[in-house]
Amino acid sequence: MAANPALVNVQGVMTPAPFQGETLALRREGVEFLVDGLRTESGKWQAKGALWLSDVRMVFVAAGPVGRDGLQAFDIPLAYVSHDKFNQPVFGCNHLSGKVWPAAEGGGPAGTLPPHDYKIWFTNGGVGTLLPLYYRFIRAAAVALQQASRGQPASPTTASAPSAPQMPSSLVATAIVDPSDPSKIFLTQPVDESRRLPSTPVYASNYGTDEKYEPM
User: What are the two backbone dihedrals, phi and then psi, of residue 100, each rounded to the nearest 5 degrees?
Assistant: First the structure.
């Protein structure tokens, strides 16, 4: 988890600056986000905006100007997500909930910092397009973790689950389209190659042992 990841303005839309090799899969408007355990007055941050899903992370970008807390976006590495669950309450909006380990020093399951609890509410429309891609990418991150624990190179960007051998771009191109899901799928990348970040997500040498994620 990292606060305020790099963003770029693409035709008036604040967009996560992708890493080298990262595939931005979709953007979902009409989302409300809540995360706790922060150094804000209330100890949490809640905002409305858009959720971006890539093959290595989720990024929530708040709508409107930056508030007093200075927060505009949150980065959730898929390899750091645990206890994630899709909830369908009788009353209220469908939402994803889970825990994500902080990326700061001392983070990770073997660190001293506790994970952050988060919730992502989908306030309008279905999730039949978003959820299948999310679970495919989550499984790929888990495979990368298993490979790292066996001493193999850990690369969540290119890892693929046994049941999904395609590259991320192929998964996006063949994604299920749910007419009730307003998510926008990107068949071509929305950010010009020249505006990508110069690096890939950097995992510590002990990634797969204590899951520590190097701060970016």
Answer: -140, 130
- Beta-strand (E) ranges in the chain? 2-3, 7-10, 13-16, 24-36, 44-54, 57-62, 73-77, 81-87, 95-100, 116-122, 184-185
Distance of CA 102 to the CA centre of its chain: 13
> Taking all residues of the chain, what is their mean pLDDT, rounded to a whole number?
81
SS3 content of the chain, % helix, strand, coil (to 5): 15, 30, 55
- Whose CA is closest to 56, among 213, 175, 185? 213
Structure tokens at 69: 């807390």
Tell me the pairing of strands 44-54 and 13-16.
unpaired
Alpha carbons within 13 angstroms on the beta-carbon side of residue 159 total 22
Rounded Cα gap, residues 150 and 159, in angstroms = 14
pTM of the predicted model over 0.85: no
Nearest to 111 by CA among 142, 83, 80: 80
The larger pLDDT score, comparing residue 80 to residue 212, is at: 80
Q: Is 28 helix (H, G, I), strand (E, B) or coil?
A: strand
Per-residue pLDDT at 142 = 76
The single residue listed with the structure tokens 């071509």 is: 188
Contact at 8 Å (CB) between 144 and 154?
yes
CB contact set of 174 (below 8 Å; sequence gap of 6+): 166
Distance CA 144, CA 168 (A): 14
Sequential DSSP letters for 158-197: T---TT--S-HHHHHHT----TT---EE-SS-SS-GGGS-
